[in-house]
Amino acid sequence: MRFTFLITLLGIAAVVAALRWGTRAWRSETGIIRQDLTSTATTPPASYQPSMLSALPAPVRRYLEQVLTPGQPLITHAEFSHSGTFNMSTGEPNWKPFTSTQLNVTSRPGFDWDARITMSAGIPVFVRDAYVKGEGILEASLFGLIPVARLRGGEELAKGELMRFLAESPWYPTVLLPGQGVVWEEVHPTLARATLRDGNVSTTVDFHFGPNGMVERIYSPARTRITGKTSEQLPWQGHFWNYIDTNGMKVPAKGEVAWLLPSGPVPYWRGTLERATYTFHR
Hints:
Layout: H1 2-39, H2 58-67, E1 75-87, E2 95-106, E3 109-118, E4 124-132, E5 135-142, E6 146-152, H3 155-167, E7 182-188, E8 191-198, E9 201-209, E10 215-227, E11 230-246, E12 249-261, E13 264-280
Antiparallel strand pairs: 1-2, 1-13, 2-3, 3-4, 4-5, 5-6, 7-8, 8-9, 9-10, 10-11, 11-12, 12-13
């Protein structure tokens, strides 16, 4: 019995040591990616003024008038912490809790989402979703040690990650102002289409505005969903709600993202904004 107990203790110690080592290795890679992300950042104009909105579609103008304060300095970097649940299945829902941090750079556009999803028996899966210098990155690893997925490069991956950057802009709304790279087209009084180009990568997202004038839903008719070794183009949408005041801006505290299948929406991310820290042009 003592021998069995000793073996059990040694096994637990080995798992703990592996998790610590894997966490350090993953964090080290995060540091490298984020340093690379910020190395190409450029400086935007100094601040927002209402006169900048005159040429924008009416729903975009009404939205930005609500979420920005005149004289608001433009965002150069944004750091977020989120918590929520992530659906790990493409069949029957299998929601697991996650926590994440995210760094966004507004010009040149890029981000790094670094998440930990807790599976059954407390097993952590480390997940990275990023767009750095025009390249898409998607990685997942058990304990930060055992690779589950590792994708880098390719036109479709880059386009999908730039699409995410554009779709999440309500968390850093100064990027939607004129001169920041986004080109707007009004579709009807509550819908405007945004296009963003970064080098050879271009993406378009529809912004739907609610009765209160806020961004309520984003939509794309085709975003690449990767499942194992296969990929497919599917309609994709996100919802935002519960806008809160922070740093002179209004940003959504809640969100949900889903794939739109013929059978109906399949949500896979539901999150709450726990913290937002901004670096502004000075």
